[in-house]
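Lecture notes, structural biology module. Today: joint structure prediction for complexes of four components.
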Amino acid sequence: MSQQRHGSTPGEAGGVPAFPDLPEATIARLPEYLRALHHLAETGAETVSSEGLAAAAGVNSAKLRKDLSHLGSYGTRGVGYDVSLLVAQIEYILGLDENRAVCLVGVGNLGHALAGYAGFASRGFRVVALFDTDPRKVGEQINGLTVRHIDDLERIAAEESIAIGVIATPPGTAQTVADALVAAGVTSILNFAPGVLSVPSNVDVRKVDLAIELQILSFHEHRKASLTALPGGRSAAASPDKLPDNQKAVGS
Amino acid sequence: MSQQRHGSTPGEAGGVPAFPDLPEATIARLPEYLRALHHLAETGAETVSSEGLAAAAGVNSAKLRKDLSHLGSYGTRGVGYDVSLLVAQIEYILGLDENRAVCLVGVGNLGHALAGYAGFASRGFRVVALFDTDPRKVGEQINGLTVRHIDDLERIAAEESIAIGVIATPPGTAQTVADALVAAGVTSILNFAPGVLSVPSNVDVRKVDLAIELQILSFHEHRKASLTALPGGRSAAASPDKLPDNQKAVGS
DNA sequence: GTATGTGAAAAGCTTCACAGCG
DNA sequence: CGCTGTGAAGCTTTTCACATAC
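The predicted structure, tokenised, for the full assembly:
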């Protein structure tokens, strides 16, 4: 890739999109860059340097530049990146200009909260349907949507062209729900239920397990404790201080 | 490591714990192994092969064996791993035998759900305090806990030895809350608010951004769509089928 | 015979450091 | 002269394949 590639821009449906095959690690960071860029745009910035954007996104600038270079995106040497152009590029790559329809299965404790989560609507998604198996929940109104019985999933998924499903059921029902989603034509699943889902290979699954996050933190607590207890152990609150650096985020 | 290392076992506080320094990628998978092991234990299994446990955890067996080898843990060649022994080992490494106290800040939509999330209690954590700034929420009872004003954080954190804090506030207040948590002696933070937190380097932060998860899935939808539209594009629902394989989970 | 534990190879990702462009 | 874009180096993680132990 020596020549500049002005990678297929948003509006342009001229030829083949020539979809760049980005490293997974890069893909996982693009949404964070996008959030940082939106924030910058609100503050009125028109351009931003790799240094500046990297700081706002919590990564180092070399990584950011390498990531953006994969998009074929262009900054201007000596100047930086055009904020709104980069926003458009990233939104296009992520497919956010399509305002995708999402459904949510399981309207318990967590599902209820997700149904009302404003962050989905504001960042490219429409929650268009809620499902549950519990007849006591079916019919309930949440945030302007009526909870449906899961038997209606196939029909509604077709009507609304739902490609993404969110599972927020107890662990025991998650696989059954996943099978139903797949049967209804859903090809991406975000799973909040602990455990592994088995799906056809054309379906993407991402998992968020809240207890696992805490357990990873617990490991680090345990390690820190065993270090302070031993060698040149720093007694209590003391450290170089306030190095932001990359937040360990949902990845891969 | 040619000789067997029966790595410091749970009960034993004989000498120095000799904390193994595990690869981050391994640490992030241990909780999933633990969950799978608990599940196996419930079904009455006393031992499990690397193949079997790997399948239950959604990884391949080579990776699992390499991961466990870092613990200095021992299976038995020709047999497999002792389930309850491995459970104890992993719980010890993750520091789950300490039943850590956790506090939660921000009792909105999502915070409310997290406060009642049963998975925390059942997997090694006690949610011992809830905080908010909104005076209308302070005093509210959730799941047996009273919501306190955030000004009480420092006192209560000390009383209850809270080392882990969960942030479930709107993005705008997340940094202020993080500063307060750090001041109160919290050294691990799980952040549900979009954006990057800046904290001292002795504090660990993990981030869960629900919209980012959907955006990553959206990218894959976009890519799948652009592939089916083009080369030897498989028309619709068709694929090798049901290869479980690793769920892309919260990582790094 | 069977399944673990592990060196060694391969792949993937991050960081460096600087050429090259504006 | 400043900042991007990128080869090359270094590091981490995954995978392979087999010697080793039960």
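Point to remember: Chain A has three domains: 24-96, 99-208, 211-247.
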